[in-house]
Amino acid sequence: MANIKVTIAYDGTNYHGFQEQRGTRFKTIQGVFEEKLSWLAKEEIRVIGASRTDSGVHARGMVVNFKPGGLLIPPERLTYALNGVLPQDISALKAKKVSAAFHARFSAVAKTYRYVIYNGKMPLPYLRLYSYHVHRALDIGAMREGARCLIGRQDFSSFRALGTPVKTTVRNLFDIKISKMCELIYIDMRADGFLYHMARMIAGTLIQVGMGKLKPHQVAEILAGCDNMMGGPAVPARGLFLINIEYPAHALVC
Amino acid sequence: MANIKVTIAYDGTNYHGFQEQRGTRFKTIQGVFEEKLSWLAKEEIRVIGASRTDSGVHARGMVVNFKPGGLLIPPERLTYALNGVLPQDISALKAKKVSAAFHARFSAVAKTYRYVIYNGKMPLPYLRLYSYHVHRALDIGAMREGARCLIGRQDFSSFRALGTPVKTTVRNLFDIKISKMCELIYIDMRADGFLYHMARMIAGTLIQVGMGKLKPHQVAEILAGCDNMMGGPAVPARGLFLINIEYPAHALVC
Q: Burial, B18: exposed, middle or buried (Cβ in 10 Å; 0-12, 13-18, 19+)?
């Protein structure tokens, strides 16, 4: 049975997150994607998503996989077929056959999220759904200094919203890059996984450092405290983009 | 009587252009702005806009002016007051008192428009309302070469949609800059004025050059032809941003 991996992008504004919530009336990206895919495949298909993204979070590199029962459109044509039926706020970027063992969630070895801050003085309407507006000028140097201590394999309990039970709160944060382009500031975080709200709480804490409300060295204290009341607040979902998910080569060959 | 200049930004997606069309039910940026300004000023206020932008066109530097009859909120506080009542897709960026002779449209000496092209292979949903998607890779070098002949004081009849009668079709195009950032291509056009659809038809023609459908030297032939059937089609409004409007110093002092 073929195993198909599809990379998708979406504007999360009008959805209640990625993951389908069966039995509810909330519109989710997974729900709409499965509906259109099933229609094309002429069979009921459920997909496995690599990540749950919250309501309002966007993606340019979400990954799903599924095993169609019958014959399906060849992967090289599947993206075009999907984009012909998907609404404009969801699009298929790539599709390929992968090994039977490939699992969008469990095979993933790294994920990259980007948090976008618009740091102009006054609000810019056309950025409002795709960034978080911080009008006070942020000190990028201080933010970079504060971010440094977060890199590595550590317990991120301080940067986690309670809710979903997890086996461990240890994650390996491979890198944080903070860059500025005109009035936009990007916080790019690459890790082996993210706890619930972790990316948004790290961004919120670094914004407080950028504002001078926290000193850079206090980020290390917050991390060491392992207390989710100490970290910055989770900044709004609309600034967050799931950029990329990485898999080992052996999971991709088929 | 005070004369107030306000710089505004907007997301044009949900409006029928900037200019109010009295007696119609179309929602315009000017209409909404005047309604909120009048409410704050407690008197009926009409504003003069520097430019008409089409349905779907965005702005980060539209300029309006108006002469309030009574006392109004001081300019330094007016932007905050306006942003408190305007919908999220319109915002006031700056407000200042200007000379009585200042006229948002007639005093303008230069306008800059930016056309945004998303040149990735597959559609990116969160860019769909703020760019034009061209999936075929564009040759920036050829576009720059084609753009060069447009610079200067010339008859732009070939880059004009018929409709509004104008005294002259001669405009001075001070500069065109084409830049690329990842998969986004920006065409920045600065001129003393733009004919109806001129910015979008220039962008459309340069895109055809970038695709190889037109040779760079043919842009000069199209310009010389003075025939609006020769130029490229006007590309969609959603990729166009009114960036900036310039005024001479004497019009601004008060």
A: buried
